[in-house]
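Tokens in:
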């Protein structure tokens, strides 16, 4: 396993309320610190603001922009969109993978959404920079992700002394009731586990309609909230 992998220090997954893992000190300290110190703040801050108060830069955008980041960051993005990493995730979740719509042996995965020819899955990696919102508010109330998504992971980078901002795992025992945009859920179950918003922490989960999660509001002196988002997702050809 590469020392770039966010899973190199993974322990056992949690099977309930849905398959997930929280990893603190995920990357070697020296490597993480180099990534942290070379986050492309000016570059990402110049991208359009999305509806969830975030600015996102995906793999294909970095490629189109001729990789205006350090070589280490490029290696990180390329590794986490590789088939090798995809297989690491499948191995981590073990028997749960048998519930996926298509068998791993039938998965043909590509890198970045712009390369969709002849594949039934693709992987993406993106910088995510959430603008500061008023204290006590959050950009991500309880929700589930796009149901084409197979798995999603977050690696956190923190720049301030604010409190809160943690990733919450909810236990959903009822069919989610939808309300608002971005798959927001109005009847979210109780919070049963938390990934702290702190440097070098990873939250990774297998996605489903019951994989409800949210982000806790922040308080105190805030700077933009940084993470790197890593996903595997079916294309529209997922059942072929």
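Residues out:
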């Amino acid at each position: 396993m590469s020392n770039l992998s966010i899973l190199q220090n993974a322990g056992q997954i949690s099977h309930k309320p849905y398959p997930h893992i929280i990893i603190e000190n995920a990357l070697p300290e020296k490597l993480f610190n180099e990534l942290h110190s070379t986050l492309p703040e000016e570059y990402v801050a110049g991208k359009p603001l999305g509806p969830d108060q975030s600015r996102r830069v995906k793999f294909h955008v970095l490629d189109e922009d001729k990789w205006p980041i350090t070589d280490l960051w490029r290696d990180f993005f390329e590794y986490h969109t590789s088939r090798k990493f995809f297989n690491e995730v499948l191995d981590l979740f073990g028997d749960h993978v048998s519930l996926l719509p298509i068998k791993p042996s039938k998965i043909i995965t590509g890198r970045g959404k712009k390369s969709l020819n002849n594949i039934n899955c693709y992987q993406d990696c993106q910088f995510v920079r959430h603008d500061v919102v008023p204290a006590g508010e959050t950009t991500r109330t309880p929700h589930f992700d796009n149901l084409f998504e197979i798995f999603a992971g977050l690696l956190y980078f923190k720049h301030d002394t604010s409190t809160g901002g943690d990733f919450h795992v909810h236990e959903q025992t009822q069919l989610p009731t939808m309300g608002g945009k971005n798959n927001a859920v109005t009847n979210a179950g109780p919070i049963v586990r938390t990934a702290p918003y702190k440097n070098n922490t990873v939250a990774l989960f297998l996605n489903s309609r019951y994989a409800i999660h949210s982000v806790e509001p922040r308080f105190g002196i805030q700077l933009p909230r940084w993470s790197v988002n890593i996903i595997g997702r079916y294309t529209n050809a997922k059942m072929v």
